[in-house]
Records
---
Amino acid sequence: MKRLIDESMKNRQKRRINESAISMYDEVLQHLQACRHHCLVFHGQEKTLNAVASYIRNESDLPMVIHGKSGCGKTSILAKAFSVANNDSPVTIIRFLGTTPSSSLIISLLKNVSQQIGVIYGYQSTKEIPTKFSLLVQHFNEMLELATESKPLVLFLDSVDQLSASYETKLLQWIPAKLPAHVKLILSTLPVCEEDNLLEILEKKLSTSANFVAVDTLDREEGASIVRAWLKGAGRRVTFEQQLEIDRVLSVCSLPLFLRLLFDKICRWRSFELDLLCFVELSSTIYDSINALFERLEVSYGKMFVAATFAYITVSKDGLSETELEDVLSLDDDVLNSVYQYHRSPVRRIPPLVWTRLRSEIPNYLTEREADGVTVIKWYHRQFDEVAKDRYLRNVNTVKAYHSLLADYFLGVWSGRPKPFRYTDVQRKVFSLSSDELENSADRLVPKQQLVFLDDGKISSYNLRKLGQLSHHLVKAERLEEMENHLLLNFNWLYAKLVAMPLQALFGDFVDALSASHDLEIKAILDSLRLAGSSLTRYPDMLGIHIIGRLLPYYRTHVKIKRLIDSCDRDGIQRNALVPANHCMHTPGGPLLYSLVGHPGVPFGIQVTSDKQYLVSVSRICMIWDIEIGDLWRSVEPPIHGFMRGLVLSKDDKCAVCYTNPDNEIVIIFIATGEFNKFSNPIRNGDNICGLRFDGTHILTWSAARWTVIDMNGDIGAEGDFLHGDFTILEMFMTSQGTKPIAKIEVPNRHNAPPSSSRFIRATGFDFNDFLFSGCVAIAEDFSSLYACSVDDGKIQSTKIQSTAIVHHVRTGQAWIAHRELGDTPHTVHALTLSGDETWLVASVDPGFVLWKTTENGVKAERINLNLTKGKKNYSGSRNMCVFSRDNQYMMAGSGTMIFVYNLTYRRLVKEISAHFDRIQDIIGVVTPQMNIAISSSSDRTIKIWNFNNITKPVPTPIQHDKEIDSIAISGRSNLAISVLRDSVGVWNISDGSLDRTLDVSKCETVNTPTGFIVKMNCAIILNSGKYIIGADTQKLIFWETDTGRVVHLHYFTLEEDEKSRKYSRQLLLTDDDSRVFVILRTKSNFIKPDTARKGLCVCIKVDTMKVAYEIEFICNDDCPSVLTSNNLYIVIPIRGERSKSTQLGVWHVNVGIFLYEIGLDKLHPFPIIDLVQQRHQNSQIAVVDRDKASLVEVNRKLWKKSTTPCVDSFLRWNGHCTSDGKFGVRRSVRGKSLELFSLLTSTAVRTLYFGQHPGDIEGSITITKNDKHAIYHQSRNNIVRVFRIGGEVESNPELATEIAAWPLEARVCGMDNSSDGTRLVVGLTDGRLLVYVIADGLLEENMKKLDECRRLLGDKASPNSLNGNNNKGVSPTSRKWSKAITIARITAKAHVATRSESKICCVQ
């Protein structure tokens, strides 16, 4: 035996067959064996077989679909068709879906089939088969393309409806809409599967029903012949009377499943039994036959055991493994009492042999499939499922009991502990038990059901069965409270399910709970997860942060949300130790439905497919999103340089076309398969492409003067130009004749004509005249009419009609005839747009928008003015970004970074949303019976989905400025921080992240300034004591009193008339004792000659007297910051050397302002200096930093070791920041893929700090917290803030030095600092938010106390918020009742005043 095993292993090694290949071969053999079995008993269905054979021979490039109701013989038909095709086609592959574990899940199915195709065609690749659904579908399609004319491929997939339910399976996204050459695909399916009309989905996907074949029902003669053939094969015969009875039932039903049940019944007849006794047992329907089968099994194995076994299989979500079934039966005391009715077992478990014998009775009716990584058993035919439900699960309480016991099993309630039971009366008599012995308990030896499985203390895998099954059974058992405690309000459960299963599965738990009980808190949690869905898919460790950051406003008022946040605070810090201290993200339930993140660049194009199912967006890559769930479905990365623009989809949703910038290439992306084609610039002379149109067969591109039409292969079909008139093409449109486009052209400005009167529309190859217009035009989709400015019968008449007038023109024959004048506007029109249904015309003007209803009759239509908020200007540019909701109730418009929502019924602005932190690129609307949304894309690289149904619903919003934050500063000894904006300073309390006040610079007194001078806040600091805030704008230094916000002092700078000589404040420095503040001013840099010397000024002001102590003038090269030494004796300023002209260090005495000496850096730092860093551990040392290294420099000349060497030491790849004791620093590793915690004493690495998820580029800034416990690293390119533990017990245990947090940010970081105790991190963002995080390191007690303190402050200070939209600001219920009563009284009193001189109202509560 040993020799045989060794030889087998050697042979396997020689063939180099890995485990996956062996699994594939086993899978192929199983399905071939099943095919052989079906073919042996196959008879009839010649018509369907001929249709399959005809399809294989014809030229169709679409899949073939065979459909019919359950039990009609589809499986046998495909098996027979496969056997016939196998004789004619070189390559045939078959899978009977749902019959094996690998054919039950779409992922394993596609992997297995792709692997088989690759082996057959000799495909070799070093890459592994992808496991992500979208990439796997793309790989599957690539494998299909391996088929050749000499080696065609025919693929049979039986019972598509048997695939385990998943979102991808239901939508059948994996089925190719168009097959490659030499490939045939034959599918079989039920018409309807779990309320999904599969036939309708397939017909819509394939755009035709030509290859759809319905399976015909067998007649009586065919059924009888099949039964006779089966009997002959089994070596059995029936009597004449028995044959008559068989013919009788076959005349009622002749479905193949019924024939199988009938045959199994006939095979049990015995020749010595009376015929009449047998006939009584025959049934004439599938339902009755299955019932008879169940009844026979109950007689043989016991009714209770059979009923419970079939019931558990039926109520299970995806089936049960044999081990699970035995465990569950062992927990069911009714089953055990029936099995052990007459004897006592030493172990209270079900005997395994009992189930094995029962299963052997029904081998053809149960199937093995894969679910949650386990092989489970389930009914193969749905009729068995229906009969089992009707027979065993009629009683609602019985169903709940079965689900409840399954829930207990997956919860592990009875693992490792005895489960009590009670003996029956029969057992009491048989076993001679006393009354005291009737109650007992026993360990059922069931598994523990832990959530995760550990290996050496690390998570090796997750309990997928528990994650996939538990929620289903808790909901069905109506144990919602336990579901909330163990699942929905448990961070560990949510995180495990997010990591181990698809995002939609996590949503499904909440959806199931809401279907049983509509709870506003549970719905708010679900909406929070949906809001963060796109981000959580990429960064699952952000789960706790998203929950806290979005739901924190409800922490005080909603118990369940508070419990979940507490769970995130307690358990979530193990995944991400950065915990929000304030409300910092969009709250669920409002206008924002979810955000889509992941684009590496600006999404310049977004379009929605015609079925409103997918959103296609392009930047450097093309991303296709599922709109319903907000998840990425497919990502396509064509090899291009720059960005893709001008996105257009074909009407059949098969292709997306765009052009690239700056290479001017045409890219065609096939949405269904992820494939793409790329063509070089089709426009003659290589002009830059300005736009693109696509009608499904032709692509129209144009430049400023030329246009070209190409087909899908890149061949030119037509082209033209407007060079003869020196015209400029503004826009072009496709017509029904793709090679004859329509152009909107701008005429060159001649004879001082106004630009607004120099445009026209021309049709190439069409018989209608040019149409002249002024300014803007909106054209109907069918080109039958248009709306334009300043036109009259197609001729410009600027003297008759105002330049802001809008006229409706209709095309009649060759001419455009003025139909009516809609009216004029008081402002210049920048853009005209028609709504999707062409019922509204929208004009973009400076104050906002002007609307006309195009369906109104009359000479002039009513003008509706919709203005922006006061003081704001419409920045929508040359095109409107306006969309309309369902029934045109709302209009949403984008301008700059804002979204404005107007109610068209009341004709007013109802909502102003700070939608993005960078300019909005586009807005599109999606309106269906199920959806009423708008989609916006922005230069901030995000795409956001807005819900019109909740557009006016009030929800708490994060506190933020309406302008970009430039920098931040933190007080050293108080809980205050400031944010510096262009025209103001914000004062924040970092204990709870609240904005205390905003200090407006414009309200400060000003003096006469030079012409064109702009007053702008440049920098600001707050005293360590928090008493004063000192800010420097371009004109003056301002002292504010922090408590009151009052300006207590102004110090004006000298403003030279010559701009080149004018100095601007660049930096503020403060001594540790708050005694002196230093203002560093410099002239502007010369970008043309960057080495030009610049003048600088340092002004020292005493804080107590607010008077200037001294001024220092210097010459410098750049804006490298200055620094104070830690003993506050020296100020070091980078200056321009007198001889070398390079940057040197000038040292001045802080107290008296005397220049001491100059420190040369020529030999020490050949590269430009970028930073000077104070060293806390040395009184007079600083770190001088360039791009390559940092050097420790001793400023005090008396302490120099050598008279000419101020440098103490140098360290490569270090940025100058270290711990307060000077022992450790953090630097980039040699390879640049990680960070290093290194010793400043020995310059050796102590620990490598590896990045967690999404490492990306190493470039970024590193700081160390003031308590020396953590290193903060901002990864600039990925915009991720990472926290590494470097303090505490790290010196004795380097393994503890690791990444404990990573937070990817949407907006760019403009400032970052940590609190004086090092427990909080403050980050300022360009979108106006100031984020306060607690570094919740579980190994540091002081950090955890700070988190508890933040939550207590939140409970004490936060104003109450309600999920139903009624935020009552802490008003008591009694006060609210009186408020309503008083309101009623006022209304009633007013009514009485109208009729009487006196009125008395009494309010009684």
---
Amino acid sequence: MANRDRSYRPGPWRDAYAHYGSYEDYYTPSYYGERSYYRERDYYWENTSRYDDERAWRDEYRFEDDRPYQAGGYNEPSSSSSLYRTQYMVRRSQSPPREPAAMRHHEDRPVTPLPVRTPSPSYLALAEERPTPLSSPTEERKLLILDLNGTLVHRAPYTRPKSRHDPLPTDEFGRALPRLRPVHPRPYMAAFRQYLFSPDTQGWLDVMIWSSAQPHSVTDMADKAFGEDKAKLVAVWARDTLGLSSDQYSRKVQTVKDLTTPWTKLPALQQGRRATTPSEASSSGKRSRSPSPAPTPTSVHSALTTLLLDDSPAKAVLQPYNHVCLPEYSGEMRAKDLELFHSVQLREADLQADRQGSTSPQESVSSNDAEELPTEDSKKRKRKEKKEMKRAAKRAQREAAYAPAGEDTRHFDETLLAVVGVLDEIKMERNVAAWIRTGGLWGSYHTPDVTKIVEKPTIASLPTESPTIQPEEASSQGRTEEVLTASGNDAVSSPVIEPAQVGSPVKESLDENAQHLWFEHPSTLEYWATRGKAALEKLGIPVVHGIELALESLTDNHHLSCLLRAMPEVPDRSIRICADRGGTFCDVFASYPDPEKPGELKEIVVKLLSQDEANYRDAPTEGIRRVLEIATGASIPRASVLQTDKIDYIRLSTTVATNALLERKGQKHALLITKGFKDLLLIGNQSRPKIFDLNIRRPPPLYSTVVEVDERVTLVGYTSDPEAEEHAVQFDEGGDVLRGYRGKGWDGKGLAEGPGDIVRGISGEAVRIMRRPDLDATEKDLRKLYDEGYRSLAIVLCHSYTFPDHELQIGRLARKIGFTQVSESSQLLPMIKMVPRGVSSTADAYLTPILRSYLDGFFSGFDEKLKDGRIRSPRVEFMGSDGGLLDLRNFSGLKSILSGPAGGVVGYALTSWDPDRKHPVIGLDVGGTSTDVSRFDGRYEVVYETTTAGVTIQSPQLDINTVAAGGGSCLTFRNGLFLAGPESAGAEPGPSCYRKGGPLAVTDANLMLGRLIPDYFPKIFGKSAQEPLDVEASRAGFEVLAKEINATYDKNLDLDEIVYGFIKVANETMCRPIRALTEARGYALHKHILASFGGAGGQHACEIAHLLGIKTILIHRYSSILSAYGLALADRAFELQEPSSTFYTADNRPTLKQRLDRIETDVKAELKRQGFEGSHVHTERMLNMRFEGTDTALMVLPSPHDGDGNEDFEAAFKRVYKAEFGFLLETKTIIVDDVKVRGIGKTFDSLGESVFSELEKLQTRPVDRSKADTTYSVYFDRVGRVKDTPVFQFKSLHVGDKLEGPAMIIDNTQTIILIPGATAILMTKHLYITLE
């Protein structure tokens, strides 16, 4: 029962067991700090839950009849068990706490004791030498070996789970992560780090890490302590390098660091071998590998040159004189530093408040001043005095709450400053061991065996190099201190006659019979700290403590609890959140001001599954909840209503409407259309995309039923009349008819060709109303539809683009009846062509209710402020299909069809475009099912008529071409051809390697070629959703396919050639839409830059660029979440458009400009309502123009270089037309079909310098292969297998690093392949790749 019981214990004991094999392994008292062990044990006793108590008494009495643990808790024990339990609880309350049975040694778990070892005679002889100085630090390089936990950082205890059923930590893909404890660097760690890696120090010092912690913990601590400078360490070693046996490795035993290991291993690494840990020194071969070192030292080290920093005196028993023992940086020390830090903050805040004009009540009114104040202001003065008194009382209360009682002077832990001082001393020593043996740590005492009477100088008088003070000089001062044979870290029997003065008289009381470490002597510690400060200042390194408030796991600490409650809060309206909900994953990117570092932003990235009903209802809401938890530090339960006080805006892009259209899962709706046109949308425009297909399957219409409306209007005249302007109806400014129609077909009597009222349409054309709608009959039809369950309508009437009155009347009637969605074609997009306008209306009626339903569910997860639309409330913005942000009122299903891909286009366009060099950019978004391709040349390329899922829609959308070739595209061999797609394996079952029996796909091919490494890929596959990619399943599938291919071709192609053949087909398929966007339109491909993003983009980018002749590739750091990142960069957009139907002539040009001016005013007014005005508003004025007699209109935006430079639309149209078609119709007049103004509300001022500007200033440096995390066998075209292809991790690279292909670069969400001949340079925000 005991073993079973241990496996299910809640709380921190279980957490320790999960990592170290048993509770004994982790909580066995060791040499160092048995007292700390019992203190920590008692802490857990006092803070354990009911389950821990129950576990303890069960352990003690070892009931054989206990039943196993169940999901709801332990089963109730038998009556006899209850009696024993009661006796146990009573005894426990009356006696000191006793460690659980799991913490006590068991006879069945023996541990092999470490052998007792002593320093070698040769080492002792070397240490006996007399210390001698060097002429220069570079004359002899030193080696600094650093411990981590307790020495450089404090690792807080594991955070106690809220519930025993809480899952273990996982990454964004669901992979189980090693449980890491919170890591907090020691004070002055930043300055210490700068000192170690400054050019001056690097000229004489090599630095490495050697920790006895587990490799994953060492990696985490090294990252937290050294950040990017971790790559400059000559080695990073963990527990697997200490020569422990298997049982010792998993037990909490006292370890020893034998310095002969680095002295012998580091030179071996220097001989050209790959930098790995000396695993031969460990007998635990199955343990995880330590983090690999980066550079190798440039000299051979020994006892003469080595210094070990560790918080345990027993770590260096073999080389004691090369060890500087430091005080352990414990949780208690961390809490004191935090207390002091917060007290300083409080004082600074109060001083700041005083500077803003607040005076103390004692100073506010003096007797003289009081006489000068007017009597009528006495009430105001008294109120002010009262406020000041309250403010002062609050300040005093805060000071009393946060300042520990009894301490007059406090300072942060200065141990690392003292270490800098020691390093500054030993850099000039030839023999480090001799220097420490002779008491170098205790001052300049180079004659160890003679008792000296010396006086320690004060801080003000400390020289940079402390000379030896003679006894005669000391005795003449009257203050003496006897120091007897200081040896290494320890001072043996040091009776203090009178304490040394260090700045101010401080009493030092040391036990006469105790052995003291050097840092326990305050004067000595402060002496070296002062030396360290001087060394830092000499190098221009700021001496900053670097303490930051952080959530600690020591929740029982009273002072720390006060600190957490008083942590600086994130300001209101400051968190900016962008969420992109895709088909598989939901990406969330957020930023907010760092409350601890004014002027800096913190960024948060959250990646989660788009659908996970077992854990959350809505992915974006869950992602935002996680962001708020991280930013505020508060625990927010799932499914709770989120408060939006801290949120500035939320930006969303969603594929809800797109998926509904593709899957035909939209809202049932009815179509209302002019009588006689019932089948118009079903007939369509007679286009046949597959002209030779004998089995054409036309997609069904989106609407469910049709109702004809008995109404009719027509236009007066005809467009092919050569004298149309002379024959047209003439109106006055008020719209009244001055003269009727005079062209062909006029009856000679009325105002037009027949009876009916004549009105002027929005486009300026004359409209004849032949029959007005019968609203009573229409109401009956609408009520019948309502009774049948219809709640959504699409209204499409003839010529409503210019005369919308009839549609608006029917729309008002429908809303009055109760229809919740009414899509009037004239209000969605008033453009000529009834078929695409009608299909667009039905699409909007089909999709918008689904979108609104989703958004209602989204808003229900937040408080009411999010939706009220007030200026002081958080904004909610949505990505439109045209790349602009829309507010809730203007967002609809029709405008959201390309909402998801549009964010990625905005992201790559704004981060890759250089306005000075103007290199056009091609965006390559390689996803799981398809690849999206777009082009950016300083302006988004927008199309106004697109076909999606067989539905032709008339709405402005980014020109994004999609091809069915992605990571999930199926690979088949049919009729002698290699095929990649269009079928997709999807996410269920997925490719063969997903362990669900799926077909072969592009992902399988990349896996077989070594372009995906299972160890670095998310382990989310198989039935348990925790298994890695299955290479053998892919191999088996390709071997079957290879037999068929070789039999067909009568060849003997090897497996790599066949697999790569499918990759070549997939690459060519992805190149096809790129050529259509560029070469087919007259653009030279080689002048473009390829911006690759998406999860699979990096695997194909180099080869696709090579096929297209493109030499430059940009991959953004956030390329895997670029659609979410693009939302943060996007601008608010609002546009208005009106039909025109006017000839573009010199006479009409002023009229057209007047219309543009009027529309521009309306657009600016709307943007002002949304909070944008002044310099943050930019407008684009456009005309939709075509040659008379043609059917294709082009939306034209003139540039200053067109014609006379004053909005010359004619010159701009001819330029664009010739670029598109290659010729001009010089004899044709130009017709303006539409007038449009697009307003842009700028959400940022500048994105900083471009990647090309940064590249010009950047100093690059080649990266050695030894810096690679590992090597892997990868197949490349024309080269074959490169078995030792280096694999680099993004986090280990630094700005300016230059890599040569072949190579792989990997992070948590993407893999980038550098083909032979490719060169990659790491920039601030991009990976800049060039091809030969």
